[in-house]
Specification:
The complex is a heterodimer of chains A (332) and B (355).
Chain A: H1 2-26, H2 33-58, H3 66-84, H4 90-115, H5 119-138, H6 148-155, E1 159-162, E2 167-170, H7 174-190, H8 192-202, H9 204-209, H10 214-240, H11 252-261, H12 273-289, H13 300-331
Antiparallel strand pairs in A: 1-2
Helix pairs in contact in A: 1-12, 2-7, 2-10, 2-11, 2-12, 3-4, 3-5, 3-10, 4-5, 4-10, 6-10, 7-8, 8-10, 11-12, 11-13
Chain B: H1 2-6, H2 16-26, H3 28-47, H4 54-79, H5 87-105, H6 115-144, H7 148-167, E1 172-173, H8 178-182, E2 184-185, E3 188-189, H9 190-208, H10 210-220, H11 222-227, H12 232-258, E4 260-261, H13 269-279, H14 291-315, H15 318-354
Antiparallel strand pairs in B: 1-4, 2-3
Chain lengths: 332, 355
């Protein structure tokens, strides 16, 4: 089994390299430091979201509400800060957004764990509820004059490389994504909770019999996804220096595409952090660089759709073949 | 489970109130009928002539087929234990195909081919595109074996994306189908007649054919279905194809009603269709659900939508009313599922207690 995972990840890596070569040869801009940093900056928010989605898919569920949670946490945090703490440092915003996200995630968790409701339909409902509530009760106008801490945060740089014109900045928020990835990796692979998440995804009943508290695990999963989504939302807003209640809500498909591409399947029990990171990189390249080789942006949704289908189709065909091979072996 | 519950009528104490209570809990359809009637009466009393008028009834009859048809498509896929999240994308792509035929072959009044040829051609194009979309979904789910959620999430993005590629973004306008959108036969709006026809065909198909039986069987117990020799691949392929056909029909109605084909029209219809299916008694894990339940659910949702809209306009500015509706639909979906959970638990307890 581990070999199949390995192959899946190497396949994505090979595709990334090939795609980069093609784009870079057709348009040398792709290989500049400035562009690479831009790509990494685009990976920051999607990477954080993707880690949450990875955990959900590993557990055999799906969450389509996470982007709504993200924008909810972002917008309400900005609104709260403007009223109560306009001069607070940026970490206050992160904590506030994280708490709001955690709360919304726990609503998902409550509905899913307590009532044993199907994850897709619950999160379809909460997606509409959270976003609708944000728009009619909290606000539907773009906030452009964000607290000064946001502006300061957006300008900071981890690495600065002087270029012919201006400088290429690598934003320190990439460390957040990196940190989240490490935490999720450790969680999934080296903790009992992580093993429980894989177990629930592989076979819920078996996990229960093995002594895992599935209800508690599900509360954790959806709460944690909410927390990560809140952090991803505030990171997005801090980088963009504005809070737009219509932003990122419709990006949930791209994130799911990235995670699926990284090897996680809805059937649960599979998926790794490394694969997910590779998936995010590939989707970001596809989203932002196809335009460099003359593919108009209207093709973006088509590309995302195809990525989901290829990402889910290839493993499905593989399982089918493996099953057939197994059947023929046991038959002979 | 549901038939088991009915055997308990024999044990019912002859108290009228408890009888009503049990009827409401046991019969999904009766419960829905009560909900639909209560909503209708409540809004008629609250809003008087604004709600209970020929004009409003007619405008509701024009609005409801749009999502009603889609809800039937989603219902069919949900009965097998799957779902079709691409149905709105497929409907819009079908509408765009029809609009393409209309605008290319009969660009303006009097030029190009005669309308008597072009209009059937356009409808055919929409149905063909819907069918193809459905068949592709069926192929992915039944042959390749991708989970329906992810397969149709992917194709939904694909179909919507293709619509954007074809139109380049903006809507394609054409008024040549307006006679369908605005027309009536014997006082009934034509879209309503289309929906009624679908209800008849749908109930015959689900209740009187082996295909219908297989669909329920596959949803209730896939393993038993497999061992009783049901060709799951075939049934699934046909289910998703039919959902695609429903999308094609809905596409024609979209175009006829709005006089334009838009790549991202009807974004809320997925949620609304799932809500109707769940409210109509379709189990999220497949198997249960009836056409009569669906019809009552569609009516309830339309009453609620129109009634809330009229109330909202008095309370909020119009933009907030849309957002409130978005919130309300999501909340209602969750509420219905939680209530179903309690009904199911109560039923199980009673069935368990008798054994």
């Amino acid at each position: 089994m581990n070999r199949i995972f390995g192959r899946n990840e190497t396949l994505v890596a090979v595709v990334i390299v090939l795609l980069s070569l093609v784009i870079g040869l057709l348009n040398p801009t792709f290989f500049t430091v400035g562009y690479a940093f831009d790509l990494l900056r685009s990976c920051i928010v999607m990477g954080i979201f993707a880690m949450g989605v990875l955990i959900v898919l590993v557990s055999g569920g799906i969450d389509v509400s996470f982007t709504a949670v993200g924008v909810f946490a972002l917008y309400s945090t900005v609104k709260l800060m403007k009223v109560y703490a306009p001069d607070a440092p940026i970490w206050v915003a992160f904590i506030s957004a994280g708490i709001i996200g955690l709360g919304l995630g726990l609503i998902n968790g409550f509905l899913i764990a307590h009532f044993k409701l199907p994850t897709l339909i619950v999160t379809l409902g909460t997606l509409s509820m959270f976003h609708g509530f944000l728009l009619f009760a909290i606000g539907n106008r773009i906030i452009r004059d964000v607290p000064p801490a946001f502006t300061e945060f957006a300008r900071s740089a981890l690495v600065q490389i002087p270029l012919a014109r201006g400088t290429a900045n690598l934003h320190p928020a990439i460390l957040i994504t990196f940190g989240v990835a490490v935490v999720v990796h450790l969680l999934l692979n080296y903790t009992m909770l992580g093993r429980g998440i894989y177990a629930v995804g592989g076979a819920r009943e078996a996990a229960e019999r093995a002594g895992f508290n599935v209800t508690r695990i599900q509360y954790f999963i959806y709460g944690f996804v909410g927390l990560l989504s809140g952090i991803a939302g505030i990171t997005f807003g801090a980088l963009a220096r504005q809070a737009n209640p219509q932003d990122i809500v419709n990006d949930n498909l791209s994130v799911i595409a990235a995670v699926v591409l990284g090897g996680a399947q809805l059937t649960g029990g599979r998926g790794t952090v490394l694969g997910t990171i590779l998936g995010v990189i590939l989707v970001v390249i596809a989203n932002s660089s196809l335009i460099l080789i003359g593919v108009p942006p209207v093709w973006q949704r088509v590309v995302i759709g195809l990525i989901i289908l290829v990402g889910t189709g290839l493993p499905a065909v593989q399982t089918r073949r493996a099953r057939k091979r197994l059947a023929s072996v046991s038959g002979s | 489970m549901r038939t088991l519950g009915k055997t308990h009528f024999m044990k019912v104490k002859p108290s009228f109130i408890s009888l009503i209570g049990r009827l409401l809990f046991d019969s999904q359809t009766l419960r829905l009928l009560v909900i639909a009637v209560v909503l209708f009466v409540a809004f008629s009393v609250l809003l008087r002539d604004q709600f209970f008028s020929i004009r409003n009834l007619q405008s509701m009859a024009v609005q409801l087929p749009e999502f009603g048809i889609l809800a039937f498509g989603i219902m069919l896929t949900m009965l097998t234990g799957g779902i079709d999240l691409s149905i709105v994308g497929a409907a819009n792509l079908s509408a765009i195909a029809a609009a393409l035929v209309l605008t290319r072959l009969a660009p303006a009044e009097g030029s190009g081919m005669p309308l008597t040829v072009v209009i059937p051609l356009a409808m055919l194009a929409a149905l063909a595109v819907g069918s193809l979309c459905g068949l592709f979904n069926g192929f992915l789910v039944a042959r390749i074996g991708i989970t329906p959620i992810l397969a149709t999430l992917g194709t939904g993005s694909l179909y919507t994306g293709l619509s954007f590629v074809i139109t380049g973004g903006p809507a394609m306008g054409t008024t040549q189908l307006a006679f369908i959108g605005n027309g009536t036969i014997l006082g009934l709006p034509i879209p309503m007649i289309v929906l009624l026809a679908m209800i008849v065909v749908g109930s015959i198909m689900l209740n009187r054919t082996s295909f219908g039986f297989n669909v329920y069987m596959l949803g209730t117990n896939p393993k038993a279905a497999f061992y009783s020799g049901i060709n799951a691949t075939q049934v699934l392929l046909r289910t998703y194809w039919l959902a695609g056909v429903a999308a094609g029909i809905a596409g024609i109605i979209f175009l006829a009603r709005t006089n334009s084909a838009k790549p991202d029209y009807g974004q809320s219809f997925i949620l609304l269709s799932v809500l109707i299916a769940i409210l109509g008694g379709v189990s999220a894990s497949g198997g249960f659900g009836t056409i009569s339940g669906m019809v009552l659910a569609i009516l309830s949702i339309q009453f609620l939508s129109t009634g809330l809209n009229m109330l909202m306009l008095d309370w909020f500015p119009s933009s907030a009313a849309i957002f409130f509706r978005q919130f309300a639909w999501g909340g209602l979906l969750l509420l219905v599922m939680v209530l179903n959970y309690y009904v199911e638990q109560r039923r199980n307890r009673r069935v368990g207690g008798s054994e």
